[in-house]
């Protein structure tokens, strides 16, 4: 009953850090982002075929959605796809909090539909999943996915949607060299076998896996990401050095190699882009085919780093 199959580019673009732009930002990333800089990101991304934008109300409490829409101004709605989320923890107390939250996102983004709508986390799968059905029927959302759900929760959401002729078409979980819980839990295999798109988020561990940050040049002081990652940067050095070396011959950075790894694992990485120059890296990453031995070597170095980067919002898979 879903209208058209979900087609997606090799890499999707994430906008959590965009919530930091302007005084309403939440300072999670400690990034200095300007509207003109983000406009450049959008222009370069679209002209290189990166057309799918992932956002959420909670990224700067509406700020990321608003700033994204501003940056996309002037482009026809058919040139890009929007992916945003219902976050159970901030549900209102109206009759239909899912429809209400979607309506507010549509207002902020100046559109009348979302291409891919997510339940942000499995706080209450039975309660919230059925609320997607009328939104799919009305065409306000074209496709749905679930985020931070484990296998059982994915299956439950799929059963609920299945009763109305719809299905979970996508899963969005934390998946990086350092955090492979969805792979170990069989979720990647499940998605591959059932034609479900697996979107991997935090592939770059919010900057810690880019090679740009190191003990000598840590993540921005005072930001939440610095609090999470600065203490483990010494343990990541061997891995990021090897990623840089692997990238060197291919004109790629460590970040591009991390992205290429996520593509090689059959996932669609959602990369948090904050600078137009990062789009060049995604073009490079899209064209890299890592050898099996390189993948195995990187995963062994990642395991040897022995760090746990599970987000505070995530539960065990
Ligand atoms: N569903 C969920 O619960 C959930 C949770 C987390 C994230 N997400 C989604 O996934 C997206 C990605 O995650 P994320 O943004 O948290 O982190 P990420 O993609 O792991 O890292 C993003 C950071 O890496 C740096 N970076 C990006 N491209 C780079 C490049 N080519 N070279 C060097 N550095 C680069 C930037 O830092 P600087 O600006 O400091 O250079 C950027 O802020 C989010 O934006 C969001 O859309 C979803």
UniProtKB/TrEMBL annotation:
<dbReference type="InterPro" id="IPR050791">
    <property type="entry name" value="Aldo-Keto_reductase"/>
</dbReference>
<dbReference type="Pfam" id="PF00248">
    <property type="entry name" value="Aldo_ket_red"/>
</dbReference>
<dbReference type="InterPro" id="IPR023210">
    <property type="entry name" value="NADP_OxRdtase_dom"/>
</dbReference>
<keyword id="KW-0560">Oxidoreductase</keyword>
<feature type="domain" description="NADP-dependent oxidoreductase">
    <location>
        <begin position="11"/>
        <end position="302"/>
    </location>
</feature>
<dbReference type="GO" id="GO:0005737">
    <property type="term" value="C:cytoplasm"/>
</dbReference>
<dbReference type="InterPro" id="IPR020471">
    <property type="entry name" value="AKR"/>
</dbReference>
<dbReference type="InterPro" id="IPR036812">
    <property type="entry name" value="NAD(P)_OxRdtase_dom_sf"/>
</dbReference>
<dbReference type="GO" id="GO:0016491">
    <property type="term" value="F:oxidoreductase activity"/>
</dbReference>
<protein>
    <submittedName>
        <fullName>Aldo/keto reductase</fullName>
    </submittedName>
</protein>
């Amino acid at each position: 009953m879903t209208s058209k199959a979900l087609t997606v580019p090799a890499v999707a673009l994430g906008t959590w850090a965009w919530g930091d732009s302007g005084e309403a930002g939440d300072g999670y990333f400690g990034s200095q982002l300007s509207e003109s800089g983000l406009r450049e990101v959008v222009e370069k991304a679209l002209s290189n075929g990166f057309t799918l934008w992932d956002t959420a109300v909670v990224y700067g409490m509406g700020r990321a959605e608003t700033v994204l829409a501003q940056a996309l101004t002037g482009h026809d709605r058919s040139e890009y796809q929007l992916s945003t989320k219902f976050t159970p923890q901030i549900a209102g107390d109206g009759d239909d909090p899912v429809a209400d939250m979607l309506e507010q996102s549509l207002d902020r983004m100046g559109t009348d539909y979302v291409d891919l709508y997510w339940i942000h986390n499995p706080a209450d799968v039975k309660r919230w999943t059925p609320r997607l059905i009328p939104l799919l029927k009305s065409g306000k959302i074209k496709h749905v996915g679930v985020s931070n759900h484990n296998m059982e929760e994915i299956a439950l959401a799929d059963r609920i949607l299945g009763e109305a002729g719809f299905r979970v078409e996508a899963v969005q979980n934390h998946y990086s060299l350092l955090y492979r819980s969805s792979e170990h839990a069989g979720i990647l295999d499940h998605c591959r076998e059932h034609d479900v798109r697996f979107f991997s988020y935090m592939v770059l561990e919010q900057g810690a896996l880019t090679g740009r940050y190191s003990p000598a040049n840590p993540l921005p002081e005072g930001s939440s990401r610095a609090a999470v990652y600065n203490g483990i940067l010494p343990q990541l050095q061997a891995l990021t050095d090897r990623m840089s070396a692997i990238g060197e011959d291919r004109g790629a950075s460590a970040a591009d190699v991390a992205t290429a790894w996520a593509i090689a694992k059959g996932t669609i990485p959602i990369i948090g882009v904050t600078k137009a120059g990062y789009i060049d890296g995604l073009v490079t990453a899209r064209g890299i085919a890592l050898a099996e031995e390189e993948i195995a070597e990187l995963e062994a170095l990642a395991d040897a780093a022995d760090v746990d980067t599970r987000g505070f919002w995530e539960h065990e898979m």
